[in-house]
Design a protein that fits this description.
Blueprint lengths: L1 E9 L8 E6 L7 E6 L8 E7 L2 E8 L4 H15 L10 H26 L4 E6 L2 H21 L7 E6 L6 H10 L3 E3 L4 E5 L8 H8 L3 E5 L6 H6 L2 E3 L12 H10 L7 H10 L9 H15 L14 H8 L2 H24 L2 E4 L4 E6 L1 H4 L9 H15 L4 E7 L2 E6 L4 H4 L1 H11 L3 E6 L3 E6 L5 H11 L6
Parallel strand pairs: 3-5, 6-7, 6-9, 9-10, 10-11, 13-14
Antiparallel strand pairs: 1-2, 1-4, 1-8, 2-3, 4-5, 12-13, 14-15, 15-17, 16-17
Helix pairs in contact: 1-2, 2-7, 3-7, 3-8, 3-9, 3-10, 4-5, 7-8, 8-9, 9-11, 11-13
Length: 470
C-alpha cells in the first residue's frame, strides 16, 4: 500500500506519461519512490493507493497543509541519522585535513540525502579527468550502497555531466536550469560540482545557478574568495589548512563515505596518482585505474561506441566489472600513451635558464595522425613531464600548446620557486587576449581568445620564466 506526499513531478508531453516522486510519511524511515500513475497527481497531493508494476492504479487523494513541512522535517532528521562516524583512511596528513572539513562534509551529505528523499532533481558535474571521474564514481558507489535505505524503487535519478572546461560558466548554469525545467518539486533542485570551477569566471555562473539550485561544491584548486562566499557549502582543503595535494576525487569520496559504509581506497588512490598529488603512493592497481579513467574521459568511444561522448559513473562501473574488457582497455591505454610520448620527445624544443630547463612542444604535431582523441593535451603534458624529468639535467618545466590553449607543467623542485599561478596571473593583466588562466602551481593552463597571438604570448611566458627570448 502506497501512502505519501507528491514531492516532485516530471511533466511529459502527455499527462499519462508524467513521472511522480512520492515521499512516504514515515517519521522514522521516510523513503522516496519514482512512479507512473493512471491518475493525474499534483505537487503536494497526499496519496494513498495501490501500485502495480511501478504504476499507481488506484488512489485516494487528499490535502493537508501541514504534510509538506512534516515530510521535510522527517527527511532532514532521517538524513542526519544516516551520517556515519568519521573513519580514518590511514593516510595521516590527509586524515588531519579531512577531520577539519568533517562538519562541512556532514552538512553537505545530509543535504544531499535530504534532496533525494524529497525527490528534488539533482545534477552532478565533474571534471573530465581521472581526478574528476574518481570523485563522481565514488559518489555513485556511495549512492548505490545507501539506495535501499532511501529509495523504494532503486537508484535515484541523477543527471551526471562531464565538464570539459575549468570554469562553471553562465551558459553552464543556464543549461542546468533547462535540464530541470520540466520538473516541479517541493524542494529546490541540487547542483553538485567537483574538481573544477574555482575561478573568477565561475562567479556569474554560480550566481545564476544559485537562483534555482542549492549548491554543493567540492574542489581543491586555490580558492577564489568571492566564489567561496557565494556558495555556503563550498568545501576545499585550502580553507582547512590543506592544499591541492588533497585531490578533489579524494574529497568527493570522503563526502560519499559520510553516508556510505564502503571501501573507496582504490578509487582514492587513483585520484591521487591521476592528479600527481604529493600524497600519491606507488600503487599498481591505482595507477592502472587512473590511466584507464584518463583514457575514458578523453575518448569514450574507445570503449563504448553508442551514446553521448560523455561517460557516466554507471558506464565506468560496467567496464570495471568486466575483467577481460578492463584488462584489454588498460593495455591499449598504456601502449597509446607511450607512443604519444615517444612522438612528443622527437618534436620538443629546449631552452635553458640558470636553474631549470624549459621544454616547448606543439601538441598538434603529436596528435595529427592519431585515430583517437586520447590522450588529451593536459594529461598528456603531465605524462610527458614524467619522461622529461628522467632525461633532463635540471628540473624541467613543460609548455605544451594546442589551438588557443597553453598547458604548463612544473617539476616538483621548482613549484614553490616558480609560482606559476602568479606568473600567468600577471600575464593575464598585461595581455587582453588572454581569456582565462588558472590551475595549480604544478599544473596550470592559459586560454586565449584565439590563437593569433599565441606565439607572442609563448615568448612572453618564456621570458617570465628566465629564458633569453627576444
Amino acid at each position: 500500500m502506497l501512502e505519501g506526499i507528491v514531492s516532485c513531478v516530471k511533466h511529459a508531453a502527455s499527462l499519462s506519461e508524467n513521472s511522480y516522486w512520492i515521499t512516504s510519511l514515515s517519521k522514522e524511515r521516510p523513503q522516496i519512490q519514482e512512479l507512473k500513475s493512471s491518475i493525474v497527481l499534483h505537487l503536494g497531493d497526499l496519496v494513498k493507493g495501490e501500485v502495480v508494476e511501478g504504476k499507481i492504479e488506484s488512489a485516494i487523494i487528499s490535502e493537508d497543509p501541514n504534510a509538506l513541512e512534516s515530510s521535510r522535517t522527517s527527511a532532514a532528521a532521517y538524513a542526519s541519522k544516516l551520517i556515519l562516524p568519521f573513519g580514518k583512511t590511514g593516510k595521516g596528513e590527509i586524515d588531519s585535513v579531512t577531520i577539519k572539513m568533517k562538519q562541512r562534509l556532514d552538512e553537505s551529505a545530509a543535504l544531499f540525502l535530504q534532496k533525494i528523499l524529497l525527490g528534488a532533481p539533482i545534477i552532478v558535474r565533474f571534471h573530465n579527468d581521472a581526478d574528476g571521474l574518481t570523485g563522481a564514481y565514488g559518489i555513485y558507489l556511495s549512492i548505490v550502497n545507501v539506495a535501499n535505505k532511501i529509495s523504494a524503487t532503486g537508484l535515484p535519478r541523477i543527471f551526471w555531466k562531464m565538464q570539459r572546461g575549468v570554469a562553471y560558466s553562465n551558459s553552464d548554469a543556464k543549461e542546468d536550469i533547462l535540464t530541470v525545467g520540466n520538473y516541479d518539486s517541493n524542494e529546490k533542485p541540487l547542483l553538485l560540482i567537483t574538481d573544477f570551477g574555482t575561478t573568477e569566471e565561475s562567479v556569474m555562473g554560480a550566481q545564476t545557478a544559485g537562483e534555482k539550485f542549492d549548491i554543493i561544491w567540492l574542489d581543491h584548486h586555490p580558492p577564489v574568495e568571492e566564489l567561496t562566499k557565494l556558495v555556503p557549502l563550498y568545501t576545499n582543503p585550502w580553507n582547512f589548512e590543506g592544499n591541492s595535494n588533497y585531490t578533489a576525487g579524494f574529497l568527493a569520496c570522503e563526502f560519499g563515505r559520510r553516508f556510505a559504509d564502503i571501501d573507496l581506497s582504490l578509487i582514492q588512490s587513483a585520484s591521487l596518482i591521476g592528479d600527481y598529488s604529493g600524497y600519491a603512493q606507488d600503487d599498481e592497481k591505482g595507477r592502472e585505474l587512473a590511466l584507464l579513467l584518463d583514457m575514458l574521459t578523453s575518448d569514450k568511444k574507445i570503449a563504448i561506441a553508442s551514446g553521448s561522448n560523455d561517460i557516466t559513473p554507471s558506464e565506468i562501473d560496467q567496464i570495471l566489472g568486466d575483467e577481460k574488457r578492463r584488462t584489454e582497455l588498460t593495455k591499449y591505454a598504456k601502449a597509446r600513451i607511450e607512443e604519444a610520448i615517444d612522438s612528443g620527445i622527437e618534436g620538443i624544443k629546449q631552452y635553458r635558464t640558470s636553474d631549470s630547463n624549459i621544454y616547448l612542444l606543439d601538441f598538434e604535431n603529436v596528435r595529427k595522425d592519431a585515430m583517437t582523441k586520447y590522450p588529451l593535451p593536459g594529461r598528456y603534458a603531465s605524462k610527458l613531464l614524467e619522461r622529461i624529468e628522467k632525461m633532463s639535467d635540471k628540473p624541467p618545466i613543460l609548455l605544451l600548446h594546442f589551438g588557443h590553449f597553453i598547458s604548463i607543467r612544473v617539476s616538483a623542485p621548482l613549484v614553490e620557486k616558480t609560482n606559476i599561478l602568479k606568473t600567468i596571473g600577471e600575464l593575464k593583466l598585461g595581455y587582453s587576449y588572454i581569456e582565462g588562466a588558472g590551475g595549480h602551481n604544478s599544473a596550470a593552463s592559459i586560454k586565449l581568445r584565439n590563437d593569433q597571438n599565441k606565439k607572442e604570448l609563448i615568448n612572453a611566458l618564456l621570458r617570465s620564466l628566465g629564458c633569453a627570448i627576444q
